[in-house]
Design goal:
Distance between the termini: 34 Å
EC number: 3.1.1.32, 3.1.1.4
Structural class: mainly beta
Strand content: 35-45%
Protein name: Phosphatidylcholine 1-acylhydrolase
Family: Belongs to the phospholipase A1 family.
CATH class of the largest domain: Mainly Beta
Pfam families: PLA1 (PF02253)
Oligomer: single chain
Cofactor: Ca(2+)
Length: 373
């Protein structure tokens, strides 16, 4: 091929095994005008960039990050291949399986960048899109993928006492995953997901009371996801669906609510913006644990993220947009330590950090570890 200016690591076609090459092609969403896609990966095999190569394009420019090892793989548009199903003995797979893989060291990366400095391609992929595509491939391999942040804060300190809290320093952690249930539901690119998030507050330093879990919030979600890039709109993707959240406590401490939500996501280079709005599904007044929860949680939230080299900052804002001006502010910072392990610092101020304290203003700061971002 004319664009084989690098040695290629055939990761998607070789590592992931039987039948997954078709899934890879489907996830990459080739358009009729695309010749191929170029995937740039780091040494942990996380996708850093997905670059579109158009029909008739003669030159290609790669913006390489400052990394000890980078890998590049070219995935050709299956519409340009034989119409027969891909098989282990196909000429195309044999061709790629025999391509030598090679690490691109800093020196060779610099040489490469100089060699293609005058080339160009349609557009850079945003950091959000790179994460989305990486997680889709991870989902194909593991069966599930990250949803929200997964983290452990061994030290999380609140500056005002919360319900059930005997020690103001405790552990806090969150587990959040999603599973693609049906892709191309009803029409192309409309995907249907199940997601599950659990956030727990653990009084691990309360030896006198056997280190109890102060509270856990459980949040199952069913939602649709659809890309919007082919439309002339601001957002790159829209998610919409149903979410339930509850704390599983007994009658007096029980908190729960059900919502329908819609979320638009926009990404540009190292910046990402998410705007989510929700509608609470009404409950019987005799069974409603928290009838005024919207007065504190509002009707939506704004999320912002920005990456500076290896540093990632995220900000989440909520407000009830009423005269009493109740809301929440959460700032996160992460920095890589080793492979998929990151230093993680979290600051929260406002209402709704947990369901038990949805109507109490809380200020808290924690430090620990983030797993995959």
């Amino acid at each position: 091929m004319w664009f084989r200016i690098l040695s290629v690591l055939c990761l998607p076609l070789v590592v992931y095994g039987d039948g997954l090459e078709e899934k890879l092609y489907k996830k990459l969403n080739f358009s009729a005008d695309e010749r191929a896609k170029v995937l740039i990966l780091d040494k942990q095999m996380q996708i850093l960039q997905v670059i579109s190569v158009q029909k008739g394009q003669k030159e290609l420019k790669l913006n390489l990050q400052d990394s000890d090892e980078l890998f590049v793989t070219f995935v050709e548009n299956p519409q340009h291949l034989s119409s027969a199903p891909l098989a282990k003995d196909s000429k195309y797979l044999k061709e790629f399986a025999n391509v030598e893989s090679k690490e691109i060291q800093k020196e060779s990366a610099t040489t490469l960048k100089e060699g293609v400095e005058n080339a160009s391609f349609e557009r850079d992929i945003s950091r959000y899109e790179a994460r989305f595509e990486r997680n889709r491939l991870l989902g194909d391999f593991l069966g599930f993928e990250p949803y929200k942040f997964n983290y452990l804060l061994p030290a999380s300190v609140s500056f005002n006492k919360e319900q059930g809290q005997t020690k103001r320093t405790e552990a806090k952690f969150q587990i959040s995953i999603k599973k693609l249930l049906i892709d191309d539901l009803l029409f192309k690119d409309l995907d249907f997901y199940f997601a599950y998030t659990q956030q727990s507050f653990w009084q691990i330093y309360d030896n006198e009371n056997s280190r109890p879990f102060r509270e856990s919030n459980y949040e199952p979600t069913l939602y649709f996801s659809y890309p919007l890039k082919q439309y002339n709109v601001f957002f790159d993707r829209v998610n919409f669906g149903y979410v339930h959240q509850s704390n599983g406590e007994d009658l007096l401490k029980s908190r729960s609510w059900d919502r329908l939500f819609i979320e638009g996501i926009y990404g540009y280079e190292n910046f990402v913006l998410g705007l989510k709005a929700w509608y609470r599904i009404k409950e019987d007044a005799n069974k409603d644990d928290n009838p005024d929860i919207l007065d504190y949680m509002g009707y939506g939230e704004l999320s912002l993220g920005y990456g500076i080299n290896k540093h990632l900052f995220t900000l989440t804002l909520r407000n009830n947009l009423q005269s009493d001006n109740r809301g929440a502010f959460m700032l996160d910072y992460s920095y890589p330590l080793y492979k998929n392990l990151y230093l993680y610092v979290q600051y929260f101020s406002g209402y709704g950090e947990s369901l038990a304290d949805y109507n109490h203003s809380i200020e808290r700061v924690g430090a620990g570890f983030l797993f995959v971002r």
